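My current task is to audit a protein record that another person submitted. Thanks in advance; the entry in question is below:
***
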Amino acid sequence: MIQAFESPKHLLQRVARRVMPATQSTRHGILISLLNIPLPKHECGIFYSALIKQTAMATFANRSPQNVPGRYYVDDQCTDCDLCRELAPNNIRRHDEGGYAYVYRQPTTPEETAACEMGVWGCPTEAVGNDGDQ
């Protein structure tokens, strides 16, 4: 049972432990698997709501200049790990010359928004932000 006071991060970890074997519980594996494993109906809305309320640790003032204007962006802490690009390929690309990711298109569908939020959650350096200009 999901408790109303759980933080989004705690909820993600708890759900991931339930749906994946402990041997595969890397941050990257958890997020990729959650995109492919349906949650019970009563947990989907709560999980998605918790995910959307995530506060980004990226710094909007330090965003890469290639980012298009909008809510989502990648800042200068990106280490080019490829996770956000795997999660949101329709919105995030690699800057080949600079060796970092950037948002080339803001999400336009709920699925793209969810994928970008997974990028915010999954970034190991917290370089993907969701508090950009609206």
